[in-house]
């Protein structure tokens, strides 16, 4: 049998090898007589032991009913002890037990990461229920049983083949045609907030010690707090403060031809940015013909990146590099290239006022799944209007702040100032009290968004925090989300980071790529040259005489040495 060894049976009749020895030696009758004698002795011993027992006890020992009663009593005792142990363990105050554990730990990391234990029971129920109903009332009706309803994660690889670090996990996508058919025909309802406008100020003045910029308008703390008080109509700071319209004299300016194109209507766009020539442009892969026809891909670059691309003949007058439509930004508002990248990342609804859905990916990422499939999987199927992945390792803002300080991501005093400010506002370490929220720290390199007032407000306020404090947007995500969720019935789909790694591939920044040594060229090994046997009869040697024989021998030695040299090199 498989699964374990049953051992050797050496019962009362002795070992098989001893009996065989008796047969081989001709002592069969002798061995049988010994067996009879030994059995007679054993019976006499048993009778002697049975005599001292009381008669009543002897009668019950042979009774099957009494044996069954003893067995049942023993089983009840074991069941009671087991129930006591289970109840004791289940009542222990363990946060991670209350949160639940994910069945895909190997895809998060080969080791044990905190974020691998965040997928709670409510997430599992949500995954089970989402297959039974269409995502939106306005969506095309899909079959009652979603094609991905039976999707399960494959078993994890063995420990010997398990790779350390984050990696992608399987994701069930609909075929492109079915994903397109599931796109809602109308926009989602925005809770409470229906009309959102933006503050304009030609001469913004900084009146408080906290950070900010001319581009952001220096909103006061009172204006900041009022922006979290959700009403039906609101006007908030959201970048592009100066100028009659965004893109003209605002500090993030477009060419006139680009500005006209950005005003056009699109159901879906994909956007990215490279500032300071910081990344290498990555071409999307596995994009359907329908997506190439209907979904524009916009890449925002500054003048420095544009000059580099022109010098390398990457960018021509067509303003296209592969699928990407290049949009050059003039008069960037910040000296920090990464902070300039936050403008299109959070404010796409301001740049594209007539777009329904957007997928933002950082410049170092390569999209390898069709946009229709990504939107269906993470928005439409989930009945969500904003989706972002969790951090693969950390889910607590305070832990994330310490990790940023240790890695030198930003000035330590600025990080401490920001975290202390949020702590005074009521931000606490992540705990089970936040369920069904499963993380306070996102992996913010991908944003999947439906452009409706409540999501536009969220990204405006998130940008204002980045403009006021550090550019590390992981630190300000939770405070903005929690403040909005206390006011309105709205939530964010925070999916697993390994699922994000399924549809985008992460590359290195340009400075790291340039520091890497060039790849070692492969050594081509050629087979040794075969001897020339043309015109000779195999197996037959022609004898040589005199000088011909000596010269032939000399030529043979030289040719052999030459062949050895070629084989060596």
Automatic annotation (TrEMBL):
InterPro entries: TOD1_MUCI70, TOD1_MUCI70_glycTrfase_dom. Residues 518-569 are annotated as: Disordered. Coiled coil: none annotated. Residues 196-509 form the TOD1/MUCI70 glycosyltransferase-like domain. It comes from the Eukaryota. The keyword Membrane applies. Pfam families: TOD1_MUCI70. The chain crosses the membrane at residues 66-86. Residues 537-559 have a biased composition (Basic residues). This is TOD1/MUCI70 glycosyltransferase-like domain-containing protein.
């Amino acid at each position: 049998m498989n699964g374990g060894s049953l051992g050797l049976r050496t019962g009362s009749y002795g070992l098989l090898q001893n009996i065989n020895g008796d047969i081989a030696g001709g002592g069969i009758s002798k061995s049988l007589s010994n067996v009879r004698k030994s059995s007679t002795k054993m019976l006499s011993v048993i009778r002697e032991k049975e005599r001292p027992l009381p008669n009543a006890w002897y009668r019950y020992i042979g009774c099957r009913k009494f044996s069954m009663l003893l067995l049942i009593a023993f089983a009840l005792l074991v069941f009671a002890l087991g129930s006591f142990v289970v109840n004791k363990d289940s009542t222990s105050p363990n946060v991670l037990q209350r949160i639940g554990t994910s069945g895909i730990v190997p895809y998060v990391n080969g080791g044990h990461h905190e974020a691998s234990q965040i997928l709670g029971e409510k997430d599992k129920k949500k995954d089970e229920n989402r297959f039974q109903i269409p995502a939106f009332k306005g969506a095309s009706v899909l079959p009652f049983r979603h094609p991905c309803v039976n999707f399960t994660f494959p078993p994890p690889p063995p420990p010997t083949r398990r790779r350390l670090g984050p990696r992608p996990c399987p994701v069930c996508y609909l075929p492109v045609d079915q994903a397109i058919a599931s796109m809602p025909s109308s926009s989602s309802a925005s809770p409470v907030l229906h009309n959102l406008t933006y503050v304009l100020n030609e001469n913004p003045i900084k009146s408080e010690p906290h950070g900010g910029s001319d581009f952001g308008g220096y909103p006061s703390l009172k204006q900041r707090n009022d922006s979290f008080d959700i009403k039906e109509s609101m006007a908030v700071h959201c970048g592009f403060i100066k100028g009659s319209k965004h893109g003209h004299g605002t500090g993030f300016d477009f060419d006139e031809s680009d500005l006209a194109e950005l005003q056009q209507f699109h159901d879906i766009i994909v956007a990215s940015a490279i500032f300071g020539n910081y990344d290498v442009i990555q071409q999307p892969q596995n994009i359907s013909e329908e997506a190439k026809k209907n979904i524009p891909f916009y890449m925002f670059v500054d003048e420095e990146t544009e000059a580099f691309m022109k010098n390398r003949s990457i960018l021509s007058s067509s303003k296209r590099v592969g699928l990407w439509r290049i949009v050059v930004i003039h008069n960037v508002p910040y000296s920090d290239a990464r902070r300039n990248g936050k403008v299109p990342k959070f404010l796409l609804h301001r740049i594209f006022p007539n777009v329904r859905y957007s997928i933002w990916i950082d410049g170092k990422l390569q999209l390898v799944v069709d946009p229709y499939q990504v939107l269906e999987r993470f928005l439409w199927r989930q009945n969500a209007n904003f989706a972002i992945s969790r951090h693969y390792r950390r889910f607590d803002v305070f832990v994330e702040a310490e990790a940023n300080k240790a890695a030198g991501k930003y000035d330590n005093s600025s990080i401490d100032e920001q975290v202390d400010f949020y702590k005074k506002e009521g931000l606490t370490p992540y705990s089970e009290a936040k369920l069904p929220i499963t993380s306070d720290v996102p992996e913010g390199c991908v944003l999947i968004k439906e452009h409706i007032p409540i999501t536009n407000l969220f990204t405006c306020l998130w940008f204002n925090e980045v403009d006021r404090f550090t550019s590390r947007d992981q630190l300000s995500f939770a405070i903005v989300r929690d403040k909005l969720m206390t006011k309105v019935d709205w939530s964010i789909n925070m999916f697993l980071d390994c699922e994000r790694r399924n549809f985008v591939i992460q590359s290195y920044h340009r400075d790291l790529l340039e520091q890497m040594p060039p790849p070692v060229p492969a050594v081509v090994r050629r087979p040794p040259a075969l001897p020339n046997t043309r015109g000779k009869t195999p197996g037959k040697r022609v004898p040589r005489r005199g000088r011909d024989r000596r010269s032939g021998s000399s030529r043979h030695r030289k040719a052999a040495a030459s062949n050895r040299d070629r084989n060596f090199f």
